[in-house]
Amino acid sequence: MTENSFFGRHPDTTDLAEVDDVQFLDTTLRDGEQAPGVSLTPDEKARIARKLDEAEIDFIEAGSACTGPGERDTIKRVTDLDLDATITSFSRGIQNDIDLALDCDVDGVTIVVPGSDKHIEEKVGTTHEDNVQNTQELVEYAKDHDLWVEVIGEDGSRADPDYLTELMAASMDAGADRICYADTVGHATPDDTLERIKPMTELGPTSTHTHDDLGMAVTNALVSVAAGADLVHGTINGIGERAGNVALEEVAIALDHGYDVQPMDLTEVYPLAELISNTTGVPLAPNKAVIGENAFTHESGIHTDGTLKDDTMYEPYPPEKVGRERRLALGKHAGRAGVEAALDEHGFDADDDEIHEIVQRVKAIGDRGKRVTDADLLTIAEEVIGQDRDRRVELVEMTAASGSGTPTASVRIEIDGEERVASGTGSGPVDAAVQAVQEALGHAADASLDSYHVDAITGGTDAVVTVEVVMSRGDNSVTVAISDADITRASVEAMVDAIDRLIANEPDQVLADD
């Protein structure tokens, strides 16, 4: 690998396969929270921090203590968890920020000081000499208070390389534990990155902080590591200001798959991605590397057939490596092998002619621009094979009300011939109805709602919406889409139909919960 490695052919880089160790500093709770519309509560930050720690992330930047009392409460909530990771606070180049961080009981601080002329002269309004002196004094103060210290040269990608090196050298001389190159505005090319970070790596432990405005965040992070950096700043899912920070999961899989370097527990990647997406409200792009819905989903007949014969045929690495599962989707590109595999998964035994007819109907739905859900496939199969479907779970009646008080809902559901009535409350009528359904079904159903999505398919005040749910029970999952003018009814019918599909082949009375 060394002989043919891109990283290592340049005299200022090392073959990544020869790198001993790379650590991560996750700044999802700080830089990630600076993405528009993202705000995390203390409990949410604690939940994410705990999951980051389980993923063996070495450093967690919990926030900026200088932001205000509420932010300090959230940082303190994280430090109280007693995690294995080093917990830090982001600090500006003033002593009070370090004092506020100390009040939060953090292990360390990342001190950001101006690196470029633009920031030194226009933003802060100081001189190059005073900036160096102030930085040294801050480092000495933080070290005197037993803090781990990293100094970040803000806007380093637009800084004069010689001055940036001088500033970072002064930081190390003052006792900093490490220094950090920052492409604050996502300006850098790999050449810019190498030019500035290589001299820094010769001064001491060096980190890299890259943004994705040019789509080069991962490449610049890898160039940094090849140049000698041993810690990468980033966020899960790449959330952050503007185009976002470098996505740590992408750096991790690149290092692991390409160079056999393991900076984190990759099996925790997808659970982390889902947690952060759900908590921040920033959805995962379906085509996103590693964590996108389509990353391990195959629809094309050729790809599906090849994947069924050999898991590695059309995938660079197994989905289990990053906590995922492979999915075979059905649509206009579906082939016989994929349809047959999906039917087999749901317990259908069809002959050649029946499978051919089912494939044609699936393709016809796909040609109309529709996604073929599991429920669509099963309905088609039942019609083609002539197999009657005996429903075990059916919605009989539902009412929901919101008004000015607490939203409430009640449902009457028939389960294995027995009617059950239940009610629920929630943050809205849909949530209340879902709670009522779950209460009626009982804990023995053991089905979880994995995904809930709503699309308006007509306009106006009487718009029809489509609710799509993904529910799972054990190792089985099913997708159901229901359209209705009433979003609450569509939601409940989709859930009930999904559960009915999931328990179709289960023993009688699986839902008994007296």
TrEMBL record:
GO terms for molecular function: transferase activity. Keywords: Amino-acid biosynthesis, Branched-chain amino acid biosynthesis, Transferase. The keyword Amino-acid biosynthesis applies. Pfam families: HCS_D2, HMGL-like, LeuA_dimer. SMART domains: LeuA_dimer (SM00917). Signal peptide: none annotated. One of its GO terms (biological process) is L-leucine biosynthetic process. Residues 22-270 form the Pyruvate carboxyltransferase domain. SUPFAM superfamilies: 2-isopropylmalate synthase LeuA, allosteric (dimerisation) domain, Aldolase. It comes from the Archaea. Belongs to the alpha-IPM synthase/homocitrate synthase family. NCBIfam families: PRK00915.1-2. This is (R)-citramalate synthase. It comes from Halorientalis brevis.
